[in-house]
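re: ur question from yesterday

yeah so i grabbed the chain u mentioned. its 184 aa long if i counted rite. heres the sequnce exactly as i have it in my notes:
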Amino acid sequence: MRARTAEDAQLLEMLDPVAEAAGFEIVRLRLMAGKERRRLQVMAETPDGDMTVEGCTVLSRAFSEVLDAADPISGEYTLEVSSPGIDRPLTRLKDFDTWEGFEARIELDRLADNRKRFKGELAGTEEGQVGINIEGEAETTLYIPFEWVLEAKLVLDDKLMKHGADERAARLQSDTDTDTDQES
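ran it thru and got these structure tokens back, copy pasting raw so excuse formatting
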């Protein structure tokens, strides 16, 4: 899920070590068609889930250096490095544990429980399977092999918005505390 096509997978293989060396993890990579030029979109974060504008700049420069030298993409393209955002894609098994208790939409590449699409509260992971409490069904947790997941994304709801606001407030407070310590 971090890469959709074979070309994405090759680029991910090339850029993963670059991201890791800079202290980041690639959440998702997509090389997309555009009107005039293609766009290489890379979503990344630190291992603890943070991403700043400065971090995007660091990664963009590091990726550009490697991509310019290797020239793996034919034609012109634009590199776009960003955070996964609040309603982020869930592309790694650990994402399903990190965001346990939050609502998500999951699409599978095959049928499970007679359907391919699910919406509900994430219930973590168990032995390589993703757990989801299916919306509208009382106390029913369905476990799906992670390999079957085609796409998964958090649902932007009040709980997620509050979580994002709380994290921003904590970051701002931390920045204020750091600035105050430096002035002393």
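noticed a couple things. Residues 158-183 form the longest helix (26 residues). also The chain has two domains: 6-82, 93-158.
anyway ttyl
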